[in-house]
Design brief:
The protein is elongated. It is 43% helix and 9% strand. A three-stranded antiparallel sheet has the order 1-2-3, with no helix packed on it. It has a domain of 71 residues.
Length: 128
């Protein structure tokens, strides 16, 4: 899967160093926090207060990591998990969702996982 920066912008930004179009990279999951980076000269553009946000979260030393496939893939995984978590919560309701998570955690840590799943999936687990 190719993870590309977001091109969903109101206006394109040009790199002040070389004049090429800058690409937007998402930095945090489920937020509209982006940094713009030139793919030609690797120049980075920050809007007002973006540097302070990175310093506050102790991420300012990891600046180049944001533009890597592993970082962008990790964001995609986190956003997918959050989205599915919300769907399950809406479908099951808070009480049932909490309970099914407890059951799932118990099942996946159990030595007899296969047999437990077969028992649960069978229409009649006592029938041969």
């Amino acid at each position: 899967m190719e993870i590309d920066p977001s091109w969903d912008v109101k206006e394109l930004k040009l790199c002040s160093n070389c004049g090429h179009i800058m690409a937007r990279y998402k930095i945090f999951p489920d937020t509209d926090f982006y940094l713009d980076r030139c793919r030609h000269c690797n120049g980075i553009w920050m809007e007002q207060h973006e540097w302070e946000v990175l310093v506050d979260r102790n991420l300012h030393d990891n600046l180049n990591d944001f533009f890597t496939k592993p970082w962008q893939s990790q964001l995609h995984v986190a956003e997918t998990k959050n989205h599915l978590d919300q769907i399950y919560l809406e479908r099951f309701g808070p009480e049932d969702y909490e309970r099914i998570q407890e059951i799932r955690n118990w099942l996946w840590g159990h030595a007899n996982l296969g047999m437990l799943l077969a028992f649960l999936q069978s229409d009649d687990p006592y029938k041969i």
